[in-house]
Amino acid sequence: MVDIATRVWNHKWKIDPIVRSLIDTDFYKLLMCQSVFRNKPDTKVTFSLINRTKSVRLAEIVDEGELREQLDHIRSLSLSRGESTWMRGNTFYGKRQMFTPEFMDWFENLRLPPYHLEKRDGQYELTFEGSWPEVMLWEIPALAVLMELRSRAVLNSLRKFELQVLYARAMTKLWEKVERLRGVEGLRIADFGTRRRHSFLWQDWCVQAMTERLGDNFVGTSNCLIAKNRDLEAIGTNAHELPMVYAALAKTDDDLKQAPYEVLSDWHEEHDGNLRIILPDTYGTKGFLDRAPDWLAGWTGIRIDSGDPAEGAETAINWWRDRGEDPKDKLIIFSDGLDEDKILSLHKQFVGRVKVSFGWGTLLTNDFRDLTPDNSLAPFSLVCKAVAANGTPTVKLSDNPRKAMGPKDQIERYKRVFGVGKQEEMEVVV
Amino acid sequence: MVDIATRVWNHKWKIDPIVRSLIDTDFYKLLMCQSVFRNKPDTKVTFSLINRTKSVRLAEIVDEGELREQLDHIRSLSLSRGESTWMRGNTFYGKRQMFTPEFMDWFENLRLPPYHLEKRDGQYELTFEGSWPEVMLWEIPALAVLMELRSRAVLNSLRKFELQVLYARAMTKLWEKVERLRGVEGLRIADFGTRRRHSFLWQDWCVQAMTERLGDNFVGTSNCLIAKNRDLEAIGTNAHELPMVYAALAKTDDDLKQAPYEVLSDWHEEHDGNLRIILPDTYGTKGFLDRAPDWLAGWTGIRIDSGDPAEGAETAINWWRDRGEDPKDKLIIFSDGLDEDKILSLHKQFVGRVKVSFGWGTLLTNDFRDLTPDNSLAPFSLVCKAVAANGTPTVKLSDNPRKAMGPKDQIERYKRVFGVGKQEEMEVVV
C-alpha cells in the first residue's frame, strides 16, 4: 500500500522520475505508432505543447531545470525486457501479437528524439521534431511531466500534515464519485487519465479504486504500464493526430477531403472488432459522416470527443440507421470532459439504444479542484499536438471551435473543403 | 507522519500494545489519584466495566486471549523516567509542582493491581478490586483497550485498500468538522476522547488536526501522553467517582447529604483557579446547587456532563447570580455527547454571557459512524465505574436517569436524601 502523502513528502524529486517507462503512455499511442511505422514512417512532424489555460503561467510555476531533468530522463528510457514481453505476448482486445515483430524490434531500440524548450510569455514552448513514429511518442510523457511538475510545485509548499489531509480528501472525493457509479447496470468505464494526471502514483491509486469498487464495470486503463502492473486491459484505439497529419500531407483539396478516410482505410486493414472505432470530429462530425464510405458504417463504433456529447451520439445513431445498421450493435465511446454526473446522465440517455462506454480522463485522475485554498491544484487544459507534417501546418476543426488549431487561413480552407458551417462554442473544461 | 492505514495493516497486534504508558490516561485521573492518595488512601474499591450499548456483544467480537494480553501488558507498565520528569517538572494550569514529591514517589513505584475477567451474556465482566488510588487508574486504560480491540476486530476483516479508504474518509470527516469550528470567535475546545477512542494513533491524529487547524481555540488534551509528546496543555479536573465513593463511605443519611461537598472541600484545599470546577450532576444538579455552601459559588466554574446542556448552563448562571457572582467571570465546561453542531449552538447561546469551554470526547476521537457497510465501527457507550467502596455499593443518579447506576433500593434512598424528583430521560449518545 503506497502512502502517497508520505511519498510526496519524502521524495527528493531529483531522484524520482515522473515518467518511469516508455510504456507509461496511452495504449492508442502504441497502436497508432505501429500504424504510422508501417504506413508513413518517413513523415517528418513537429509536435508542440499548447497550454489552453493561459491563466496557469507554467513557466512561472515550474522550474526550467527540473523540467529539463525530467525530459532528459525520458530520453534515457528504453523498453525493458518485461515490457517488451508484455507487448509481444499479451492479448489485447482478444488478439495475440497485436504488435508485429518488425515494430517490436524497432521499438526495443528506440530512444525518444531531442526536444526544444524555451520560455515565452510565462509559458513553456516545448517542441519535438523528427520522424513521426518517434516524435509522436513524446506527447503523453511531455504532458504528464508538465502536469506533475505543476502539482509538485504546489505540493512543495505544503507541510506534512497538510499533505496527508489533502490526499485523504482527494481519496474521499474520488471514492464518493466511484460510489455513485457503482452498481449502475451495464456501465462500462475506462481510465483515460494519463496525460493530465495529478501524478503517476495518484493515477495508479485511482485505477485501484475503480478496480476495487466497480468490478466488471471498470473495463481497463489507457495506461500501458498500469495495465501491465495491475493486470488490466489496455484500452484505446486512435486519435486526431492521424487525420491531422494525413490531411497536412494532402497535396490538393480533393486529397484533403479524402485524408480522414485514408486514415481509416489504413486502420481497417490492420484492425478489426473493438479497435475499429471512428473518431469523426477532426473536421466536423456531420460532414465526415455524410461523406463517409459505406464500409465505415460497418465499423464497431464512434468516439465522441468534442461538441455536445448527447447531440453527437444522436447524430451517430441516425447515421447508422440511415446506413442500414442497427445502432444496438454499435458502440459509442464518450471521452470529452467527463465527470460522474455527465457519465450517469449520458449512460441513462443511451443505455439500451446503443452500446455505451466511457473514457474518463482528467476529472478521474486529477480532480483536486477546491482542495487547496487558492485552487492551485485544479487541472488545466494542456495539450501536445502535431502542429506540422513535412513542413505543412496541421489543422484541427473539432466540433467545438474553441478546440480548433492551425493557421487562420488554413482553418478557413479546411472549413470550406469539409463544408463546416457555423459551430457552437462550448467551454473547454479540461 | 504516521500512515495509520499502513500501520493497522502491518501491525502484528500481539506486539503492538494499545496502552503504551501509565500516563496514556486522562489528566484528571492523576489529579484525583493524588487527592485520593492524600485523603482516602486506605479505601477499598471495586471498579467494573459496564457496556451500556447491549447490542454490541463485546465478548463475541473481542477475543479473550487478546484482551488478557493487553490487560497483562498494562500491568507490566511503570512510569518511565521521561514521564516522571514531565509530571514533576511541567507547569499544569500555570502551576509548578502540581504533583507532590510524596505522590510521585508512590506513582513511580506503582504497578496496576490484578483484574478479574469473565464472560457473561455476550459481554465481558471485567472488575478491579483493591486500594482506591491504585484501582482507579485502571478505568481509562481498560476502556481504551476494549474500544480499540473492538476496532481492531472489525479492521481485521478489511483489505489494505479498504483500510486506506476508511482512514481517508475518517480524516476527511474529522477535517470537515474541525473546519466548521475554525475561526469561531472565542471558542475553546479540548480533546476529552481518550476513553472511547478508535485507537491511540487515531486520537493522536485527531489532536494534530485540532492543533493544526484551530490554533489557540484548541486548548489542549486530557491525554497526558499526547500532551507530553505534542507539547500541549493537559486538561481536566475531577469526575463522578469522587462523590460516588465519598457518598458510599457515608455512614448516615446526613453524612450522605454532605458527601459531595466534602469532596469539594478536600479539592478546595488542594487546588485553585481553573482546577476549581464543580461537577454538580452526580446526585442531581438542582438540589446540589440549592444546598451548596457559599464558598462553592466562588469556584471558577461548572462542568455539565448530563441532562440538557443548555438547561444545565442556565441553571448554573442563575445559581451564580443568586449567590451574587457575575456569570461573566465564570466558566462552564460542556463535556456530554458533543459533536460540532452541539458545540456551535451551545457556544452561540452562551458566548458573552459566561466563559465557555468544550471537552470533546467520543465523536472527536471515534466518529467512524457510517464508514463501514454495517456501521460496525460506530462508537458505543462503554464505561468503567466505581461500583463499591469498602463493601458498600455506589450510586450515581445523574441528570439523566438512563445514566443512573447502583442497586435499586439505594437509588431510591439517594433520590430521597438528595431530593431528586422526576427526571427527564434522554438518549445516551456515547
TrEMBL record, chains A, B:
GO terms for molecular function: glycosyltransferase activity; nicotinate phosphoribosyltransferase activity. Residues 23-146 form the Nicotinate phosphoribosyltransferase N-terminal domain. Its EC number is 6.3.4.21. It comes from the Bacteria. Pathway: Cofactor biosynthesis; NAD(+) biosynthesis; nicotinate D-ribonucleotide from nicotinate: step 1/1. It is an enzyme of class 6 (ligase). The modification Phosphohistidine is found at H240. Keywords: Glycosyltransferase, Ligase, Phosphoprotein, Pyridine nucleotide biosynthesis, Transferase. The keyword Transferase applies. It catalyses: 5-phospho-alpha-D-ribose 1-diphosphate + nicotinate + ATP + H2O = nicotinate beta-D-ribonucleotide + ADP + phosphate + diphosphate. Residues 188-421 form the Nicotinate/nicotinamide phosphoribosyltransferase domain. Belongs to the NAPRTase family. HAMAP family: NAPRTase. Catalyzes the synthesis of beta-nicotinate D-ribonucleotide from nicotinate and 5-phospho-D-ribose 1-phosphate at the expense of ATP. This is Nicotinate phosphoribosyltransferase. It comes from Roseovarius phycicola.
